[in-house]
Design a protein that fits this description.
Blueprint: H1 2-11, H2 15-66, H3 72-75, E1 86-91, E2 97-104, E3 116-122, E4 125-131, H4 140-147
Antiparallel strand pairs: 1-2, 2-3, 3-4
Length: 149
Amino acid sequence: MNHIASRRAARGFTLIELLAAVGIAGVLSSLAWPSFEGSLQKGRRTDAMLAMAQLQIAQERWYANHRRYGTLAELRLGERSGAGHYRLDVSAADEQGYVALAQASGAQARDAACRHLRLSVVGGLTRRESGADEGVANDEAANRRCWGL
């Protein structure tokens, strides 16, 4: 009997045991991936937050010198965020305020609920909005999550 038990232990894994282990690993990784990707997206959103903060500072500096808000070109800011996860645009820049939009690109475009981040500054009031498209129609809770507030 000892001879049979030691021979079986020396054989290693059977094909069925190996397939079961691979299957279990596949199921576990498919459960963990969405959580991991969500963490990556949240981390990449900080790229947009930093770009928007820099834009706000540049806008206020421009306003102090020109009595109106400026375009990206006038502010000498690029059309991409620092790490390149967002495309930036400034519209409606005038004496009253401006609207800045950060649109996710590349892998970050899969961040469905927070794909578009809009910062509006009008008459001294700041408004932050977010959404899956340029309509930025998220509710207040989703806006806080997208903007990290």
